[in-house]
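Customer escalation, tier 2.

The customer says the design service returned an amino acid string that "doesn't look like it belongs to this structure." They asked us to rerun it and document both sides in this ticket. The original structure tokens are below, unchanged.
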């Protein structure tokens, strides 16, 4: 179970999806006025004439759109993005840095045969022509 959760959170596509959700709800929080009293929402988002056909003050208050940036689900989106980026960095970037520190320059012709390629002879010929 733990490995499955780590596998989900280390996926960069998941982090991008969470980032898109955060951007969407942030823009929604910019459109809907935040931290107003109940009368303001009743006046501007009436039940009789809902915005977009479904958005009235009851839905805004129930889903917490009147205080998006302080709601538990928005803060959990932010926390999951941070966790996802941390796990992605730990599982992907640190091993890459470790491998890059072990880099050394190939100077001898026979050292090219140690590289992992499917067609070593063509690579060797190309490298010899370059040097």
């Amino acid at each position: 179970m733990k490995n499955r959760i780590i596998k989900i959170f280390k996926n960069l596509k998941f982090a991008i999806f969470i980032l898109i959700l955060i951007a969407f709800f942030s823009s929604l929080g910019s459109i809907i006025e935040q931290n107003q009293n109940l009368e303001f929402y009743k006046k501007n988002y009436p039940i009789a004439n809902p915005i977009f056909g479904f958005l009235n003050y009851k839905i805004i208050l129930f889903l917490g759109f009147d205080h998006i940036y302080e709601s538990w689900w928005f803060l959990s989106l932010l926390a999951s993005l941070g966790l996802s980026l941390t796990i992605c960095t730990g599982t992907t970037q640190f091993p890459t840095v470790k491998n890059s520190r072990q880099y050394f320059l190939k100077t001898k012709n026979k050292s090219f045969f140690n590289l992992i390629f499917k067609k070593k002879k063509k690579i060797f010929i190309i490298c010899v022509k370059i040097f």
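Tier 2 assessment: The sequence is consistent with the input. The chain has one domain: 2-104. The chain has a mean pLDDT of 81. Sent an explanation to the customer and offered a walkthrough call.
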